[in-house]
UniProtKB/TrEMBL annotation, chain B:
Ranges where the ABC-2 type transporter transmembrane domain occurs: 22-213
Keywords (A to Z) from UniProt: Antibiotic resistance, Membrane, Transmembrane, Transmembrane helix
Location in the cell: Membrane
Protein name according to UniProt: ABC-2 type transporter transmembrane domain-containing protein
Native source species: Actinocatenispora comari
A GO CC term attached to the entry: ATP-binding cassette (ABC) transporter complex
Lineage of source species: Bacteria, Bacillati, Actinomycetota, Actinomycetes, Micromonosporales
Chain ranges passing through the membrane: 25-45, 57-79, 105-127, 139-162, 231-248
Length: 256, 261, 331
């Protein structure tokens, strides 16, 4: 067995499965376009407009988070409906190998939304594509997306365990958008939110992409984003190990 | 009498059968917590960009928070019949479609009102934004009318779901579009004409306007035009929903498109 | 001796917790399986029969590591299902009936490739093995199509191919023939028989008596969470030994009729099966009594079809076993 090959094939097939779902495409493509439009008009209306490009990039990052959050929630829920969650968990690999491809795939599907919001902003909304460090952006965007996918593993462990994953998923969209400074700068929020923001890889991912737009060093934020994602990956793998055992006690892998 | 019973009792039973979000965790998480965070997000965004004032964002987003329950709920009220395979038996019922489906929007409207009131209260407390007692009747009226028209809008989307399989896609986009064009977060004047026109024809924009006026201390008489417009939309969507239902039902017999499988 | 056993269940139990209500939830528990013991030898084809909700699927899921037993122990190929989970998983295949259990938006080939990876089938063997399995389940040529366009029978065959990818020692088949047309079901039976002949241990649940009788070396009947009978098909028929079966086609038999029939002397059990307009009364009697005249008198006024007396089949035995456990449970 070759773990790299397995993860690559698994991720590829999960991307295929998810990107053929109209709902997944809507969440990661159409809704971010509406959000980008909203962000750009809001920023245009503002008396103190920061770069409009930041609005488009921020909306793209919001899309990535939606995709990871709603996407992995929905993917695992669908597998439960489809009966494949049991089939997946009964295979002899370590649980993380079975679930990580699903969340990595949601991140990659979310990459659509970064590209789409940028194109939409530049082509239709008249956002000037003035990147301070375009090459860094090209590097940082996919790295962020994969990092968030890896972070998703930690979320996914709860989705596997709880039959009603949506109850956790739905309220987690806006807080993370807000706290990680995707559109609202972290400095505008009450001070006590700082530590929470600091442990979210989304914060550092958003900061890295903002730096690529406005200038300044990209790599420290990017490194922190990847570092936190790796920690989440390890925690997620450990959590899944226990979830695998727990789900067999609580009988939540199947619907019946 | 029988129609009234069908409207109320039938509506409530259908709500319990078809609304997927009635478990405690789902209700609290999705319908109560989520809108509060949405409100906070936009209030902070408004503050950062120095557009509008806190009070306007607060009441506007509170009205808008009903959208989630009403749009998705209205959609589920019809579209889930198809998913559960109960559409066939339902359409075989000899009763009037208008009463069967019309009653379904009402529980979601009530639900929407509760959510708006909750969001408004929690938002005002968290952000320490005072709301005058004298503006409460106007606000309450605006919230009720907004939730009603939004529920009928949801029912219209649900009727579309009878004909097209991927209705959740429509409600997801509809929810996001309401955020954009309802004038709550981006002033209508800042939007291009197409989106401005869309906002005027979709639910909640007029209700949000009325709520803002009320919060600003306007007398009830000033709320009549926007609330009248919103009520007009409510009636319009109710008729549209029932018309579409009838149309798709007739079409389905001819083309067998309602086949549940 | 233990080395000869493929599956060994000792005092297996499973209780589910339930929760109903909104603000003040009522908690309760349901005993799905209440202490089941059986052993399956290597290479045996073992059938598990029982009414809906009797605990068949729960039993299978405890044996295949999807559920943890709340009591008792189970071993598969000598390995404990709770302690040696991964080792058990490597040795077993699991296939269930119905439409579910496949990635709908992927092709058959992609489904098989993914699971070949997840079962650790070496990369250089994958192509040959997938090809051979596609051939065996008659899907060659359609393997690039998405599963969502497949018929029930094709899905079922793909499901089986997926379950066999890693050449499991033990295969769990949970109602594989459900909703499959008669021709496809026949092919399915041939495939199961072939697998068993090649040395794979098979545990099969089904509602079709003919299928169980044709295929299974031994059959266990589970009713109300307990093992009600265990033996070969012929041995099980002894449950109905000393009986005859009077079978009557009828139109319009009521529950009151049935109660009267049940009360006739010499009648052990009366059941009715409905298919469309037609009802089939099955009256089990002691072999030495002729109840036909009395039965026909009771049914005066009811339109009747064919009436025949015959020796009991496996189905009659099954009905007798299940009904007697129900009577015990009610008593």
């Amino acid at each position: 067995m070759n773990p790299v090959r397995m993860l690559l094939l698994g991720t590829l097939l999960q991307v295929k499965q998810q990107s053929r779902s109209p709902l997944e495409i809507t969440i990661s493509l159409l809704v971010p376009l509406v959000q980008a439009t909203l962000a750009v008009y809001l920023f245009k209306a503002g008396t103190n407009p920061p770069a409009l490009l930041l609005a488009a990039v921020g909306a793209g990052m919001m899309g990535v988070w939606s995709s990871v959050l709603f996407g992995s929630g929905a993917a695992i829920q669908n597998q439960r409906f489809q009966g494949t969650l049991e089939i997946l968990m009964i295979t002899p690999m370590r649980p993380a190998f079975k679930i990580l491809p699903i969340t990595l795939a949601t991140g990659l599907v979310g990459l659509y939304s970064v590209v789409a919001t940028l194109l939409w902003g530049v082509l239709l909304l008249g956002v000037p594509p003035s990147f301070a460090a375009p090459l860094w952006f090209v590097v940082a965007a996919p790295v962020c997306v994969l990092a968030l996918g890896a972070f998703g593993l930690l979320l996914a462990s709860t989705f596997v365990l709880l039959r009603n994953a949506n109850a956790i998923v739905n309220p987690l969209g806006y807080p993370v958008w807000l706290l990680s400074g995707m559109l609202v700068p972290v400095t505008a929020l009450p001070g006590w939110t700082g530590p929470i923001a600091a442990v979210l890889p989304t914060t550092w991912g958003a900061r890295a992409l903002r730096a690529a737009v406005t200038g300044g060093p990209v790599w420290p934020a990017l490194a922190l984003c990847v570092g936190e994602a790796l920690i989440a990956l390890v925690l997620g793998a450990i959590a899944l190990h226990f979830v695998d055992r727990r789900a067999r006690v609580t009988a939540t892998l199947a619907l019946t | 009498m029988r129609t009234l019973r069908l409207l109320t009792v039938g509506g409530v039973i259908a709500y319990r059968a078809l609304f997927n979000w009635t478990t405690p965790a789902m209700f609290v998480g999705t319908l109560l917590v989520s809108p509060v965070f949405q409100l906070l997000f936009f209030v902070y965004l408004g503050r950062t960009l120095h557009v509008g004032d806190d009070l306007g964002y607060l009441v506007g987003n509170a009205v808008l928070s009903a959208a989630l329950a009403c749009v998705y709920g209205g959609t589920m009220a019809v579209a889930n019949e198809r998913r559960y395979g109960t559409l066939g038996p339902l359409l075989l019922s000899p009763l009037r479609r208008a009463a069967v489906f019309g009653g379904r929007a009402l529980p979601y409207a009530v639900n929407g009102v509760l959510i708006s009131a909750f969001t408004l209260t929690v938002g005002a407390l968290l952000l320490r934004i005072p709301i005058g007692v004298r503006s409460l009747p106007g606000l309450a009226l605006a919230i009720c009318v907004g939730a009603l028209s939004c529920s009928f809008f949801g029912l219209t989307l649900g009727s579309i779901g009878l004909r097209f399989r991927d209705v959740w896609l429509v409600s997801n986009v509809a929810d996001a579009v309401l955020l954009l064009v309802s004038g709550v977060n981006v002033a209508p004047a800042a939007l291009p004409p197409v989106l401005r026109a869309a906002g005027a024809l979709l639910p909640l924009r007029h209700a949000a306007t009325a709520a803002r006026e009320a919060a600003g201390g306007a007398p009830l008489a000033r709320l009549v035009p926007p609330l009248g417009a919103e009520l007009g939309l409510a009636a319009g969507y109710a008729l549209l929903a029932i018309g579409l239902l009838a149309l798709f039902e007739r079409g389905s017999r001819r083309h067998a498109t309602l086949d549940v499988l | 001796m233990a080395g000869e056993l493929a599956i060994e269940a000792v005092g297996l139990r499973r209780t589910y917790r339930t929760r109903t209500g909104w603000l003040r939830p009522r908690r309760g528990s349901v005993d799905a399986v209440r202490g089941v013991d059986f052993a399956v030898a290597r290479g045996e084809l073992f059938g598990l029969l029982g009414p809906n909700g009797a605990g068949k699927t729960t039993t299978i899921k405890m044996l295949n590591t999807l559920l943890t037993p709340t009591g008792g122990t189970a071993r598969v190929m000598g390995l404990d299902v709770v302690r040696d989970t991964r080792a058990v998983r490597r040795r077993i295949g699991y296939v269930f009936g119905g439409d579910r259990g496949l990635y709908e938006r992927l092709s058959a080939l992609d489904n098989l490739r993914y699971f070949a990876e997840l079962y650790g089938v070496p990369a250089r063997e994958q192509r040959a093995r997938i090809g051979a399995l596609l051939d065996a389940v008659d899907l060659t040529g359609r393997e690039h199509e998405r599963v969502e366009g497949y018929s029930r029978g094709m899905r079922q065959r793909l499901h089986i191919a997926r379950g066999l990818l890693h050449e499991p020692d033990v295969l769990f088949l949970d109602e594989p023939s459900i909703g499959v047309d008669p021709v496809a079901a026949r092919e399915l039976r041939a495939m199961i028989a072939e697998l068993s002949a090649s040395g794979t241990t098979v545990l099969l649940t089904t509602h079709y008596m003919a299928e169980a009788e044709e295929l299974c070396d031994r059959i266990a009947v589970i009713a109300a969470g307990r093992l009600a009978a265990l033996g070969t098909a012929d041995e099980l028929k002894h449950a109905a030994a000393g009986r005859r079966v009077l079978s009557v086609e009828a139109y319009g038999v009521t529950d009151a009729h049935l109660a009267h029939l049940d009360a006739l002397s010499g009648v052990r059990d009366a059941t009715v099966e409905v298919s469309g307009q037609q009802q089939t009364l099955r009256i089990q009697t002691d072999a030495h009594v002729d109840v036909q005249p009395a039965v026909l008198r009771e049914l005066a006024g009811v339109r009747l079809g064919r009436v025949e007396t015959r020796a009991p089949t496996l189905e009659d035995a099954y009905v007798a076993i299940v009904n007697s456990t129900r009577a015990e449970a009610a008593a």
